[in-house]
Amino acid sequence: AQSVTQLDSHVSVSEGTPVLLRCNYSSSYSPSLFWYVQHPNKGLQLLLKYTSAATLVKGINGFEAEFKKSETSFHLTKPSAHMSDAAEYFCVVSAPNDYKLSFGAGTTVTVRA
Amino acid sequence: NAGVTQTPKFRILKIGQSMTLQCTQDMNHNYMYWYRQDPGMGLKLIYYSVGAGITDKGEVPNGYNVSRSTTEDFPLRLELAAPSQTSVYFCASSYTPRDKAYNEQFFGPGTRLTVL
User: Fold this and answer.
1) DSSP letter at B30?
2) A27-82 pLDDT, tens digit each
3) Is B42's CB within 8 Å of A9's CB?
4) Where are any strands of DSSP class E within A7-72?
5) What is the Cα–Cα distance from B10 to B115, expressed in whole angstroms?
6) CB contact, 8 Å: B45 with chain A?
7) Higher pLDDT, B98 or A19
């Protein structure tokens, strides 16, 4: 079985400062990991994915995440926050060759001007 | 491509009423999914389909039904609406061949349903 824990339910940052969203996972297999973003009243959009290739994964809009097997973590970072980054972020895990996605509870990001 | 589209965007139902949430994708994806999202929670899978004519239950199927008569459409039916079904419903699709190692899903904009 797979599960994820997002360690922060809410993160507030100032525009131009770094963003860190923390995610720990649990999986019986070598997992696939995703970060999705949901802007207000919108559907979910894929930011990036890890599928057992490079451990440092670059995504859209300047986001990146690092897969650390020893720490069972997949934290999402961005060097400089923009006002448009204000949204809900979901860490998601699945087993290889499995249709099932297991979602974290989400982290709400607020960006202060 | 429009991607995944859902109708309606919003709906208010009375207890005991029925309705169908519509979902259409134009990406020729084989898999389609219905999720619900409750406040402060991640998405929970209601039903999924691996192709036309094939559907199966997810984590929280009670109170819902689905059908998949075409590749493009995957409607979700609520027969007797209850307040516990107040939620935001998302439809998603993916192209998932047998040998694919991961499952990237594409989501619609959601339907916000309130049952009073």
Assistant:
1) S
2) 877 888 999 999 987 889 999 999 877 889 999 999 999 999 999 999 999 999 99
3) no
4) 10-14, 19-21, 23-26, 32-38, 44-50, 56-58, 64-68
5) 11
6) yes
7) A19
Q: How many contacts, defined by CB atoms under 8 Å, are there between A and B?
A: 64
Q: How far is CA A65 from CA A17, A50, B33, in A?
A: 17, 8, 26
Amino acid at A91: C
The closest CB to that of A44, out of B90, B96, B101, belongs to B90
- Rounded to the nearest integer, the mean pLDDT of chain A is 92
Task: Report the percentage of chain B scoring pLDDT > 70.
Answer: 94
How many angstroms separate the CA atoms of A52 and A63, rounded?
Answer: 18
Question: Which residues, in sequence order, are CB contacts of B39 under 8 Å at separation 6+?
Answer: none
User: Tell me, what's the pLDDT at B102?
Assistant: 57
Q: Which amino acid is residue B53, in one-letter code?
A: G
The tokens for A36 are 């999705």
Structure tokens at B24: 């259409």
The size of chain A, in residues, is 113
Q: Would you state the pLDDT for residue B40? A: 77
Cβ contacts of A52-61, under 8 Å, gap ≥ 24: A52/A96, A52/B101, A59/A35, A61/A85
